[in-house]
Amino acid sequence: MISAVALATGAAAFNGPAVVSGPIRTPAVHMMDLEGLKTQAKALNPVVGYWDPLNLGSGEFWGDSNEATIGFLREAEIKHGRVAMAGFVGYIVHANDIRFPWKIPGDVPTGISPQALWDAIPEAAKWQIILTVGFFEFWRENAYVLAEDGEKHYMRGGKPGYFPTFDQLPHPVPFNLFDPFGFSKNATPEKKAKGLLVEVNNGRLAMIGLMGFLSESKVPGSVPALSGLVKPYSGEVMAPFDANFHIFS
User: Fold this and answer.
1) I need a labelling partner for 57 at 20 to 30 A (CA). Which of 4, 225, 234, 241 fits?
2) Alpha-carbon span 98 to 135, nearest angstrom
3) The model's pTM
4) Which has the closest alpha carbon to 144: 32, 31, 9, 5?
C-alpha cells in the first residue's frame, strides 16, 4: 500500500515547485555521491563499514543519476527504520496487553499475539490506519509542500528523512509529525548529524528485532533468545485482510 501511494505520487513529486505568491525560500541542494555514502557508512559502523553486496549504491535507478539513486536509498533506509522502531515498540505494547483505559469500537480481545490482534480489529479500523499512512506518503513526496518548506525532493538534492510540516493544510494542525515539540529546532548542525547516525543505527536494530519477533511467532524456536517469550501466530503476516489467505488455493 505504501509503495503504491509513493509510486502514484512520484511523478508529481519530481515536477518543479508551483508558482506561488509571496517570498519563496530557496532550498539548499546537496547530493551525496558514492564516496560520501561510503564515508557515512564508516561513521555509522566503523567495524563493518561500507557493505553493499548487491551493488545498489552504484546503480542508477529508473535511468536517473547515481546521486539521485543514493538519495532514494538513504530515504528508504531512514523511512524503513522509523517504521520498524514504531513497530518494535508497538509489538511489545500489544504483546503485553497494554490498552487505552477507555473503550474503543469493537470487541478487541486480550491474551493474543499482536498479529492476531490486527486480525481481530474491524476492517474499517484497518483502512483508517492504511489510508493515514498513505496520506503521509503523499505529503512527503509532494513537490509543492516541500517547496513551501524550503526543501526539495530527496532525489533532487533534498534532505533524506525530512518530513514536511503541515502548514499547507487548510485545517490547523497543532503538531507536526517530525519534531512536534521543537526539541531539535535550534540544535547545532553537528548535533543533528550525530542524531541522524543514531537514528539510522537504531532503525537497523529495530528492523532486526521486529523480524525476530515475527519469525519466532511463526516458527517457535527459530529465534532461541525469544523462545517462550513470544506468543505464537498461525496466520499470515503478509495477508493483512485475511489471516487464512493462500495464493494457490
Assistant:
1) 4
2) 27
3) 0.81
4) 9
